[in-house]
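Example record

One chain of 395 residues, shown exactly as stored in the release files.
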Amino acid sequence: MKSIELFAGAGGLALATANAGFHHKAVLEWNANACSTLRRNKAGGLKQLAQADIVEGDISDVDFRPFQGIVDLVSGGPPCQPFSIGGKHGGMDDRRNMFPHAIRAVKEIAPKAFIFENVKGLLRESFSNYYQYIIHQLTYPELLRRTGEEWMDHASRLEKAITKGSQSGLRYNVIYQLMNAADYGVPQHRHRVLIVGIRSDQEVQFSFPQPTHEQEGLLFDKWVTGEYWDRHKIPKYKCIPAPLNLKNRIAELKALIPGMLLPAWKTVRDAISDLPSIAPGTTCEKYPNHFCNPGAKSYPGHTGSPFDEPSKALKAGDHGVPGGENTLRFEDGSVRYFSVRECARIQTFPDDWIFEGSWTESMRQLGNAVPVTMCEVVAKRLWGLLATKEAVIYG
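Predicted structure tokens for this chain:
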């Protein structure tokens, strides 16, 4: 099945959908450094981009109609800054709000399905009406906003069409869910909203996958069996003691037996401990993008990520890497920046995926990215449903 990726950034969602079985016809992105990353990896023979045209430019200039009847899936992450908790909260009035073009792509291509992802700030109460408006437009993408019509009036017409249920034309069954990447095997606490729509004539039933990993599994492996420390060859005198506030939970876990819990959350140590050690200001030649910039500092509320927990959410920053974030915190309270390759591991990019641009630009690409593994779990389920439907139709 063919796909097209919008707002691709460094390629996290594009990797996920390709790994799930979709074949990209085109990958669209406006940022020059991100496009350099995509072109570098295509030229390097990465199979996920083998059939894809890398299109750099403004999405408002793209005519999607030639893809109709060819592309089965539209996916992408419309720029999240308008809705990000860490951003300027411009939301619907922010010129960076690209959801109208995502909706236009769905209308012009009429794919069998779509997957869009965004930050959890999209669900904030102050944006709730506009968010429902986005969902309703994705449900009936052909019911367009009239010239001069206020968005609230358009929203009202959409609501009437949805409740009446008799609107003709293109229609999608749309659901969404807030997901924590750590619950799906990503060594990072990163909350993203996943929106999935399936064209109504496909008549398939989709539900979001249940978590595959959990915190209790990590607590169990650390402080009940000790398997976590043994696996990393940490001597007992260096093992971190269980926090006092978890005493009761750990006591309950001791009553369980192995196999009763989901696998443990992945930690920073799980993700990066096999990479060669680097000191600030040094570079490792064996692994691409594995170098460490000096100058990391911690600030109140921004103290970096502990080694033996999933990392905090990596951030992009408006003017470079955020101070105090994207750092590894040691037991003595000191911090150092994660290398670009370590951030890629934390975002579950493969080691052969190379990032182009300066350190700041590479870190920005990763701070804006969506974790590959989390989205792959969703994309695989969707691919399986559509492939089964296609097999039934064509025998």
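Notes: Residues 372-394 form the longest helix (23 residues).
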